[in-house]
Amino acid sequence: MAIDGAPSFRISMESRLNQISSNCQYSGREFFRPNWSGIKSPPFWVRNGVIFDVLARPKRQRAGLGSRLAGRFGPSMKMTNFFARTLREDPADADVDSHRLLVRAGYIRKVAAGVYSWLPLGQRVLRKVEQIVRDEMDSSGAQELTLPITQPLELWEKSGRDTTYGPLMFRLQDRKETGFCLAPTAEEVITWTVANELSSYRELPVNLYQINWKYRDELRPRFGLLRAREFLMKDAYSFHTDVEDLRRTYKVMYDAYHRVFDRCGLTFRPVEGEAGEIGGDVNHEFMAVAAVGEDDFVWCKSCTYAANVEVARRTIVRAAVDAGSGQAQPTKVHTPAMPGIAAVAEHLNMTQDVLLKSFAFDAGGEMGLALVPGDREVNEFALARAIAPKKLRVYDETDFAAHPELPKGYIGPHHSSVKIVVADPSIRADHGWVTGANEIDHHTTDMWCDRDFSVGVWADIATIASGDACPECGNALSVDRGIEVGQVFEIGTKYSTALGATYVDADGQTHPMVMGCYGIGISRTVAAIIEEHHDELGIAWPKSVAPFDIHLLALSGKGAAAETVKATADALYAELKAAGVDVLYDDREASPGVKFADADLIGIPVQLTVGAKGLGRGIVERKQRATGERDEIELADVVSTVR
């Protein structure tokens, strides 16, 4: 079918067209409406209502036409054939918008807790993000490979991480009872692979990456893709002769990550991070800013300082302390049924920051207390670093039940059972503290550090709050929530030493290779994009990662113009595809309300609506999904405008 003044349409049919139905008139425009039933015709070309035999074209123009037409006119992009079903209700287990919308819009389906099937819409988005990552890795000089998901447990035993990962690791045995695991990450396998392939300094540096599925047996998978048991990741690993060479590649990858997340449409910040199970002293996390993020990060608006709260620092102005005879003496006060900071502060008509919070823990079999002001929490990661190499274990209900002499909620820093006291520097203040009295229903006022209790280890163990002083410039810090979508590490020789990845230098000396590690959560990035790009109607994808470029809606209705609207939309769909535009065509027999709601829910960037009223004026309506902005395009100009 062709419309007066419209560009050409290519149509593939079985044999030569020998029947055209009678012309129909609509609002002063003449339309040719083919009756497809019983038609037998070879491919033909229609332009402005004139039919040209494709076989009459020169041979060089016909070459490959059949395969191109088959690829462009397949049924997979029509919603009547597309494997996608939207839901009207939110899934009961969805706690965040990305999870809720991915399920409702037909992108993923839950198979088990933390395990999802990716339906065709979701697969398209996943592959778009994956390709962005692959483009930037390739352009940065990294080489792609694929590592096994099933990995020998023996390699993990060599690095010691079989114990470190503990129950997070999926473990299995083959028929010979040989131990394996499902890869939670790939440091061991890539190091073993390189160790068996490279041995000379002349072969270094090398940067290798894969995009593959990972598995972690999360105790409580939640937030959909943000904490799943199966997830898609990009891991890259670089191998070097020295730290200086590593840092050159580290900078290249750091810059590449900026490009990746820029292209994905994310608002993000790179922050100093916690190495966790991977190890490494120098690393950065890339945090997508999101209110539902699982991680807090600290950043300064006045300089470049930014860090995960686990490793963040602040400037503390230490007060000059003189706990002499002029200071008030400790006084025990009755605080019935008040084991919490807030209740005691209200009861004593004080602010929470003058109460001392005592956090009980075990350090290698000895009882310890961590001391922070009452308006702060203890940073457990910082506390663990402060008592290293002793292992930190936070006291739980079992510990308190086993030690009735420890009055939970009323422990003071002067308890006789305490062997280790770790305090934040802010505890050395110019005032006395309200502390637990080591007696149920009682606290003690005017407790001075160094006079009434002593501290064995000083460390920055208090969580940071907005308004604290930046450690770099002294201005106010801000605390935001974010989703970790990537991380880069300088991991040194931890794995190369354990797994024998060595090289021989120019003097014949053998050294362990120096390694870097660079990860991006591909599936997690998909969720992070939705957390930033959605509204009350559904998803609003950035163009770079959208499953399709255009969502074409045919509002055929049931009136006299229904067949004309459908035929026009069919032809427009064909021409858009022929022009290389990726189109999802809603050709269903559904009401306009259902089609508009689904289009907004699915979130393709541009919606084109073909309806009887618009065709009467020779136009197609366009809506920008992200902004809701609407305009009209002349039918003849649609392809050139949106391409």
Comma- or semicolon-separated keywords:
nine-stranded mixed β-sheet; alpha+beta; disordered N terminus; 643 residues; 17 helices; 25% helix; globular
Please, could you describe this protein's structure?
The chain is an alpha+beta fold and 643 residues long. 25% of the residues lie in helices and 29% in strands. It contains 17 helices and 36 strands. The strands form 10 sheets. Strands 8, 12, 13, 14, 15, 16, 17, 26 and 29 form a 9-stranded mixed sheet that branches. A 5-stranded mixed sheet has the order 21-19-20-22-25. Strands 33-32-34-35-36 form a 5-stranded mixed sheet, with helices on both faces. Strand 10 and strand 11 form a beta hairpin. Helix 3 (97-104) crosses helix 13, helix 4 (120-139) packs antiparallel against helix 8 and helix 4 (120-139) packs across helix 13 (522-532). The radius of gyration is 33 Å and the shape is globular. The model is unreliable at 1-76 (pLDDT under 50).
